[in-house]
Amino acid sequence: MNNIKSRRSTVKGVKGRPKKTKKGIQFAVYIYRILKHIHKDIGMSNKAMAIMNSMVQDVFERISTETSQLVAFTKRSTITANDVLTATRLLLPGELSKHATSEGTKAVKNYGQSVKGSE
């Protein structure tokens, strides 16, 4: 019988120690890009970046959960853009939801134009 340990991928140069795998989607690169776009001379510690990453993941998870609940409540099987907008309006308070929906709509519009232009 083959040894299971020998089939695992290991860290380069260290025998027997399995690689660490990333859990979930990481947004640190994008958060850093936005920070540098807004404030070129300001940095961010690893701990602060981990907190920001966790916050973005939490907001995305809440929006997706609320959206899926809305779709299930209306007995449909397809999530539409309006479902995501409604979930965002329900989750985020006042002015923040207005900004989030307008920026999201603008991003989707820009993406659609870039895809259309590349064809």
UniProtKB/TrEMBL annotation:
**Gene Ontology MF annotations:** DNA binding; protein heterodimerization activity; structural constituent of chromatin
Lineage: superkingdom: Eukaryota
Record's SUPFAM superfamilies?
Answer: Histone-fold
| Pfam families to which the protein is assigned, alphabetical | Histone
The record's CDD domains line, in alphabetical order, gives: HFD_H2B
Report domain Core Histone H2A/H2B/H3 positions: 24-90
| Region called Disordered, residue ranges | 1-21, 99-119
Q: Spell out the InterPro entries in the cross-references.
A: H2A/H2B/H3, Histone-fold, Histone_H2B
Q: Return the similarity comment.
A: Belongs to the histone H2B family.
List the protein's name. Core Histone H2A/H2B/H3 domain-containing protein
Give me the Gene Ontology terms describing cellular component: nucleosome; nucleus
